[in-house]
Amino acid sequence: MTLAPALATAVAPAYAAIAASDALRRGQIVGVGGLAILSAELADAGALAALETGTRAGIIITARRAAVLNLANQRAAAAADPEPVWVERPVWLDLAASRAVADPVLDMATPLKGPFTSRALGGDANSARAAIALAKHAALLPAVYAVPIAAAAPVLVTDAATAQALPALAADVRIASRARLPLALAENTEIIAFRPADGGPEHLALVIADPSRAGPVLVRLHSACLTGDVLGSLKCDCGPQLHAALAAISANPGGGILLYLQQEGRGIGLLNKLRAYALQDQGFDTVDANTRLGFEPDERDFSLAAAMLKALGVGAVTLLTNNPGKVAGLAAHGLAVTRVEHSMAPNPHNHAYLDTKRDRQGHLL
Q1: Is residue 239 part of a domain?
Q2: Which of these is catalytic: 64, 266, 275, 300?
Q3: Interval 8-36: pLDDT, tens
Q4: 75 lies in which domain range?
């Protein structure tokens, strides 16, 4: 297929960023801005040697991870939007030691790290931010090896601004298919699939009964949780929340909508969520587990949910939630939002998790 020149100009940068994210996820060297990068999680000796043909690679980590390693004070991590940190790699910081810098699950096994030297990013700051954005988009640990792009031969190159704009592209969705889907808890249900413009996982809307779009619609935003929704994990309250929301919407005279969003682990992905679980087993709560991994406590972007609701003709919602962030996230995109409590009883395995959501993330529990 040949694109018209104007359309090709608009599509090419976004396509390059998406392709670079996919290549990074496959353990390949990609270029972003002025840097050539390689996933620290996936790197092996051969890939790292290929990256380092011209110069020794540094490791770019997030300010969150740098704070764990006591590097944050060197890079003014208290700023509102702290930049990533470039860790220099002396000879002793080999592949195994470098992986321990990136992967906090190894912190207990390798407690003595450093001393490290970090350098100012200077003109590489935007490229470093974009490198972290690509790693997050690929659902990898947010840590990469990096060298100046002139010193390597990346398989793909993308510009820094487009890489950083990938979350907005992920929230650009269109309806792809729809069908009737009777559920045990809501027999009169239609399932609607949304395809995002970044080619990522599809998101679902369960439209129960025939909610009128003229007034507020009863809505639940539910982030996918394989372990809780499907396997019945007791570590969280996701499965009970899902089932209670379906029952509540079905019982509502006006029906409603449940959005099933592929934002596992508050947006960090399934594998990273399992790493967070491993950290929780080491004694860290759910917030500290995410930040030790290098992520924010909550990486979800509720512009996705807002876009889906608008595509369904919804402008006002009565939201089943105890998370003020969801209320604010929808309101920020022009939806009128009122909140309805949606609490689940704790069990012996998740009471500390629920306490953390209340005490550290402001959930109204």
Answers
A1: yes
A2: 300
A3: 334 467 888 999 999 999 999 999 999 99
A4: 5-166
Is pLDDT of 190 > 50?
Answer: yes
Which residue out of 298, 339, 355, 360 is catalytically annotated?
A: 298
Pairing type for strands 35-39 and 143-148 reads antiparallel
Same domain? For 34 and 145 the reply is: yes
Same domain, 248 and 225: yes
23 and 144 inside one domain? yes
pLDDT digits (tens, 9 = 90+) for 264-299: 999 999 999 999 999 999 999 999 999 999 999 999
pLDDT of residue 4: 39
pLDDT of residue 77: 46
Instruction: Name 178's bridge partners.
Output: 192
- Residue 280 located in a structural domain: no
| Tally of structural domains, the chain | 2
Pick the more confident residue, 124 or 170.
124
The 3-state secondary structure of the chain, one letter per residue: CCCCHHHHHHHHHHHHHHHHHHHHHCCCCEEECCEEEEECCCCCHHHHHHHCCCCCCEEEECHHHHHHCCCHHHHCCCCCCCCCEEECCCCCCCHHHHHHHHCHHHCCCCCCCCCCCEECCHHHHHHHHHHHHHHHHCCCCCEEEEEEHHHCCCCEEECHHHHHCHHHHHCCEEEEEEEECCCCCCCCEEEEEEEECCCCCCEEEEEECCCCCCCCEEEEEEECCHHHHHCCCCCCCHHHHHHHHHHHHHHCCCCEEEEEECCHHHHCCHHHHHHHHHHHHCCCCHHHHHHHCCCCCCCCCCHHHHHHHHHCCCCEEEEECCCHHHHHHHHCCCCEEEEECCCCCCCCCCHHHHHHHHHHHCCCC
Which of 105, 135, 166 is at the close of a domain?
Answer: 166
The reply to whether 143 and 252 lie within a common domain is no
Is 300 catalytic? The answer is: yes
Q: Mean pLDDT in the chain?
A: 90
Confidence (pTM)? 0.90
